[in-house]
Amino acid sequence: MSDLSATKPATSEPITIDCHYIKPNFAAAFLVVDNNHATFVENNTAKATPTLLNALSKYRIKADNIDYLIVTHIHLDHAGGSYALIKNCPNATILAHPRAANHLIDPTKLVTSARKVYGDAAFEELYGEIKAIDASRVRIMQDGETLPFGSHSFNFIYTRGHANHHFCIYESRSNGIFTGDSFGLAYPALQTKGLFIFPSTSPTDFDPAEARISIKKILDTGADKAYLTHFGKITNLPDAAAQLLEHLDFSERLLEESMRSAEPDSNLPAFCEKKLKRHFQNALEKTGLASDPIVWEILSLDLKLNADGIAHVALKRRSKSQNS
Hints:
The chain has 324 residues and is of the alpha/beta class. The protein has ten helices and twelve strands.
């Protein structure tokens, strides 16, 4: 079940839906409503489809009146539920980055890769059914393109750095921007003593230079709020950007250190994770959260994923250097 509480949403403010992916308050989808029509931003996984449909019922919106399903990028906690959701929204069109659209229309490579990483049983438990979506129901959005939606409009901004198939969506009426994974992760449980936000550097496309460019693009929209898939609405975007850039600077230094390190390839993820944990320890001490075991429990998955992403890029660059 979602954590929604109202039945008549204000059309100016997107609704945050907890998809209960892995745990509560970890991954969100958003619902933008206008005159009994609506758009979903992020489709999460097939496991979340009942929760998203329940939100429609709660807010008295017919599934026939879902116009768009927008995915910021193709990672499965953002787009894995697209097939399951569009089956229930007969008039909806999926809006996607061109690199993401290809995987929605033919998910074979994506699914095969994910099954190798997770194993069949874990894949089924996390993601459920992922099937091909007819190309006629997928629309590619170009960089800078604007799409009207009732009294709202969506402007699509390509934002590399986390993934090459990523875009953000500026929404005019709320003066907000849906940032996917391009403007960091800010879990509610980590905000008890002020803003604590950090970037995602997970595999496979981490690029610190592009990540900085993406942050600038987001700030340059003039949005005064960001809707993070992980997790929910944040304000004070300049302060958030400053924290993100500080973490990115460290991540880039760690990437360079990892490329030069004598650590064997197989040990590099663990090497990066140890360094990242020490960095986060220092950052959390400034907020008074470092001694809270719940904080480290929340961060454990992202520490591993971020370390894996940095190590992955370091290994690619090592290999390229050795072969040149």
